[in-house]
Amino acid sequence: MDTSLSRFICGIPKCELHIHIEGTLEPELMFKLAERNNVNIPYNSVEEVKKAYEYSDLQGFLDIYYESARVLINEEDFYDLTMAYLVKAHRDNILHSEIFFDPQTHTSRGIEFSTVIKGITRALKEGEEKFGISAKLIMCFLRDLDENSAMNTLNTAMQFKEYISAVGLDSAEIGNPPVKFKNVFEAARQYGFNCVAHAGEEGPAEYVWEAVNYLKVNRIDHGNRSIDDEALIKKLAADGIPLTMCPLSNLKLKVLTDLKEHPIKRMLDLGITATINSDDPAYFGGYINDNYLAIAAALNLQKDDIIKLAKNSFAASFLPQDKKNAFIALIDAYSKDN
Ligand code: HPA
Ligand code: ZN
Known about the structure:
single chain, TIM Barrel, eight-stranded parallel beta sheet, 17 helices, 8 strands, 13% strand, binds hypoxanthine, binds zinc ion
C-alpha cells in the first residue's frame, strides 16, 4: 500500500465499537499481574505466550482468554488494563470507544462486580481528562451460561446503571442462539439499555435474524455470515442496523482463510453501515489501525472507503446526534487537509 494511504488511515479520527477490555490484556501486563497477585499462569515467557496464541476456532481462543483473565483480581488490575488500552486507543486516533466487559468471567471466580466496574470506570474518567477520549461501557452476557445467570448479572448491574450504556452477548456462539436470551434482553431494554449481540461470527445468518427479531439489537457484532442471506442484507440496510466487523480476529479464528474473502467491502456497497474494530487486539495481533491497514491492503480499499468506514464508526455509536455530527465534521476537515 502506498505510504500516503497508510498515513491517512493511521491519522483519521475514528471510533471503536467492538473491543473486549479483557481482550486487551497484553502478555507483559499478564505477567506483571500474575506476579502481583500470586496467580500461576502456564507460560514462562512472552515468546511462549505468543506461540500459544494460534487458534483453530473461537473456542480455542476463548479457552486461553478465560484462563488469562484469572490474573485480574483487584480494582487496580482492571484500572491498569483499561488505562493500557486507552493509551493505545489514543495512539491510533480513537476519539470515542464503546467497550465490552464480561462481568460473569470475573464474578464466577469470586471477584465482585463492583471491583470490576470501579477499576474500569476510574480509568475511563482519567482517559477522558488526559486524552480527550470519550467512552461508554457495554456489559456482555456469556452465552454459554444460562439465561438465569445473565438475569442475575443484569440485576446486580442496576446499582451501576449510570456507567453502563448497553448490554451485549458474547462467548461460544454455536449451540447458543440469541433466542436463548430473549427475556433478559427484553428486561434490559425495559431498563433503558441499548442492545447489541455477537452473531454470525461462527454461527449462521439465522442467528443474526434472531438477534434482530428476538433481542431487537441496535447493532450486530461481527455479522459476517449475513452476506449469505440476501433478505437479511436488505433488512440490515433498510433498518440501518450496523455491523461491527473485526478483520484480524476473523483471520486468527479462522472465520475466513484469507482477508481477501472478507465481506466488508461488498457490505458497504450493499448499503450496510459496516465498521472496523479490533475485538481482542492482544490476542489477535493488532489494534484498530492494524485492522484498517490489513483490510485496506487485502481489499485494495481507497481513501473514500476509509472515510466511509470512519464516518460509519461514529454514526453507528450510541452518541447523541449532535456529537456524531461533530465527530463526522472532524473527519471531513481531516480528509480535506490530508
Ligand atoms: N467472539 C465471541 N466472544 C468473544 C470474543 C469473540 O470474538 N472475544 C471475546 N469474547
Ligand atoms: Zn467480540
